[in-house]
Structure formats: structure tokens, C-alpha cells
Amino acid sequence: MSIIETGATLHEAHRDNHTHRDVNGGWLRPAVFGAMDGLVSNLALMTGVAGGAASQQTIVITGLAGLAAGAFSMTAGEYTSVASQRELVEAELDVERRELRKHPVDEMEELAALYVARGVEPALAREVAMQLSRDPEQALEIHAREELGIDPDDLPSPTVAAVSSFGSFALGALLPVLPYLLGAAALWPAVLLALAGLFACGALVSRVTARGWWYSGLRQLVLGGTAAALTFGLGSLLGAAV
After folding, report:
1. Alpha-carbon distance 238 to 44, whole Å?
2. Rounded Cα–Cα distance for residues 142 and 137 (Å)
3. pTM of whole model > 0.90?
4. Is residue 18 predicted with pLDDT exceeding 80?
């Protein structure tokens, strides 16, 4: 094992190893949520219909309709949600921009007070705030980070979120239908493929979290399997009653 001996080498090693994954990306959350939702909702929908003793054709049509309806619903909902969030952030940035233009000294003192509250000596905090406030755009970015907890240059994209949701939901919802499209005549191949997909999705999610792949995979498998079992039972009850 090599030993770091010089300051320069230490800085290089720290730079190379001290990197972080993007936790604010606009695609990861809707993609993961979309795939999971597509798998669970369409599997549950199809098992519920199958529990009611519906024909194979009805189950396939139900699955395809659930895929289309869910994908478009997820796309519209995700786009509206992220767009509204972005518009709110931009409105707050406009407020901060006006305050910086109308009351630059007060905003500088406010920034200095924030640094003082974090343990910086008052004189140094004021000097830092004064230097940062010389550039209006830099001042806006600093105030946005400190006061609003946002990065003006890294706002989520409604289009990216919507496209991610549509594609991932459609892919997830397709898995339970696929065996029927390939000629299967029973429900169990669809259930097995969907459960395998749930486990795989959970395992993939573990690559960007601190959980083990087996834990994340089993968690998704159990949740999805439970939803499918409950809707199958509900469908059986309704089928017998109707």
C-alpha cells in the first residue's frame, strides 16, 4: 500500500477520491419512481382483472391500456409538478434579485451576519461578504444558496422529468404484459417476470444509495408482490360477487 508523503500528492489524492454523485439531478427520481410505479400498478391491475376470471384478451387489453394511461398520466403530472416548482424558485430568485438591486448594503450585511452565525469572525465575515457582493450574479447565487438552499444554475428541467417518467413507466408497465404478447396463456409468467423486474429495479437503485443490492431488491419485490396478491384477492371477490 502506497503512503502519501507530500502535500501536493495529498491534494491530488483528495481531489481524485473526494467526489460525489449528483443528488439533485432532474432525471433520477422520476425515472426510478416511474419504473417502480409502472411495474407495481400494471401488475396489480392485471392480477386484479385475472382474479375476476377475465379472459386472456381482456387481461392483455387491460395491461396495454394501463400502460398507456399510466405513462401519459405520469408524464403530465411530473411535468406540471417540476414546472410549478421551478416557477416558484424563479419567482423567489426575482425577489432576491430586486432586493440586491434596491438594498445592496443591507443584503451584504445580511450575508455577513449569516457567516458570523456560522462561526466566522465578524470582521472577516464582513470582508468576505463585501468581496462576494461585488459581482451581482455571484451575489445572487450566494444568497440563493444561503437563504433558499438552491443552486440557480442547477434547477430541475420539467422536460427531462416528464420524458424520464414516460419512458421508465412504459418500460416498467410493459413487463407484466410482455409474456402475453409473446404467447403466454397463463398469468404466472407475467407475475414472475414482473417480480424479477421489481427485484432488478430495486437492486439498480442501490447503486446510487447506501443500501445493499439484496435489501433494495427484496424490498421492492415484497412491496410489489403484496400489491399484486391483494388486488388478485380483491378481483376474485368481486368476480364471485358480480
Report:
1. 15
2. 9
3. no
4. no
